[in-house]
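hiii so my PI (J.) wants the whole complex modelled not just the main chain, which honestly fair. so below is everything: two entries, each one labled with what it is. i double checked the lines twice but i was tired so who knows lol
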Amino acid sequence: MNFAMQNSSFLSHLRRYLFSFLLIAFITVLFFALRDVLDTTLVALLYLLPLGVITAYWGLGPGITSALITFLTFNYFFIEPYYTFTVHQPIDIVILVVFLIVAVVISQLVGRAQAGLAAATAREREDTQLYKLSTDLTGLHDDHAIAKILAKQVRAVAESEYVELNVAGTQPFAYRLPEIDPPTRPSELIVPIEAARGVLGEIRLWRAAPAISSSEKQLFQTFASQGALALERAWLAQAESRAQVLEESDHLKSAILSSVSHELRTPLSTIKAAASSLRGREVGWDSPARVELIAAIDDEADHLNMLVGNLLDMSRIESGALKPKREWNILPEIVGSVLARMKHLAEEHQIEVDVPENLPLVPADYVQMEQVFTNLVSNSLKYAPARTVIRIRARVEDESIHVEVSNQGPQVPSEHLERIFDKFYRITAAERVTGTGLGLSICKGIIEAHGGRIWAENVHDGLAFNFTLPLTWDGAKPPQLPMDTEAE
Amino acid sequence: MSNAPHILVIDDEPQILRAMRTILTEKQFRVTTASRGEEGLTLAATAEPDLVILDLGLPDMDGVEVCTRLREWTQVPIIVLSVRDTERDKVAALDQGADDYLTKPFGIEELLARVRVALRHSASRKGVQGAQSKVVMAGPITIDLAWHIVKRGDEEVKLTGTEYKLLAYLAANHGRVLTHQSILTNVWGPADADHTEYLRVYMRQLRKKLEADPQRPQYILTEPGIGYRFIADE
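here's the output for the full assembly
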């Protein structure tokens, strides 16, 4: 409490006395008017009423003062001889004493009730605060968020000028509220955040006045243990998810190993066979087989390179190292360059492109988006029969671009539609189609790293891959470009 | 044989050195090899190569740094080799003065084409200004850099000022990769070096005016993640 508050409490004190006097004055005037009707003893009895009210509402001080004043007014106005303060009979003394006793007893009773009420209110407030803290802390799995909530609550409840929360653990940190340097003087209170495993940190509290009471200390200790529980829970959850990630990446590694041995060996066998037969004398210098073999080596080397690239991409996506290098790009240009590069692969299919020239610029990584289109188109080429149509269509929808790559290949049972984006997932037996089974999951990784969504759906004559790309980049809309004003 | 172009190959993988030596010697180049950065820098000074082929992943120092240190004293053309997905390094090396790049694994025609372009540019840099070709031809496209005239077949193509500046910069460096940053700095100015979107849009306009199929350009090629390359007739 500060000076201003003391001042205002002094004022309210004064007001209580004032009200007491006014009440007594009012009652006295009332009784005085009825003096001829009322019996003196009755007046004395009735005077107890305002006395009781005053003591009950405004405390002992005004009560006793009022008792004295009441005795005086009673004596002056209602006991003969009127208008004198002379005390004639011992009965008057008795009345005075009764007045005083009534005031004291009532104030004691009321005081006790009030203290009990105050304690109950305080307990209730603490309970509410604790409840609020524990609900705020539930479900938090981030130690920084926990520290923030705890510090906020402590500061709010303590009405302290500064709170610092030091959290130990694998990555110790301090959370300060407000976020400035702490006061130069030592903190007024340090509460350890203790759990079964030991001390997890501490709460430091700066509050010069009023001094921190022992009940407050106890409250903050309870706060600290709530915080300790939450921290322990968060760290346990983190450890668990780390273990889960490790386990998953272990699965991935063994899957990669088995896939690698199968997939990489195929092109390697071709290269080895072709190169060794060229080196030996089996193939004549002018034989057309020679050209064929050399082409096979070249093609299979490219294929091998693509497989290795896919594995690299996947491991990058897995480790979270795939960070799109976003730039404002023209989608039709990306599609065009992919199709130009895939021309010789797509000779048996017809590719229809419906990507409007006037699409807004998309904030995307050019190379990664090329990869997405390459993988989606090559997946379609792989599964859709020859002489069918592959369609690429892009439209603006709300704040994003929606791209659809559809083919007239076999449909996918609806229960598999989501799983085809999983690593190494295939519907057909691995022997029938080549590839690492990573193409679609790489697309998924890239699109999600861009903040988009990818999904597959069956359409009436085949399968469609869909993805969306947000058109805003950190809230920025596609730029309008400064154009030449010169004549075209 | 002694005035055949001399190529210094800096790469730490013996198989690559072996292959490069075999292939380049076969193509009548003189070849010197180094397997470490420091060794390469020394050889670049003593052996006076006409061209340096530099792998970016060296054991003793960063390839980009080799590039920077070479550029402190020589304008010898540098072609950097790198593995896939290290666009950042490639761009850094190019912005540090490397002339071109190749991604491993690469075809030998690609390598030879890059070498030819790099040697030609270095020759025209060394030669008298007049020796530089003032007219660049690319299929049906003729770009007269002296008279600022661009023709497609017999018809003159009307270009805006920025479009022409952009095309002229590409054509003057035909065959070479040009990074986004170098194009933006040279055509728009250093203040606009980050505005890749200008490039995207202006390139699209140029392609519309010059290419037969703007979606599948033959002359103004995109180098994904790096920049652009203008392909002219040799």
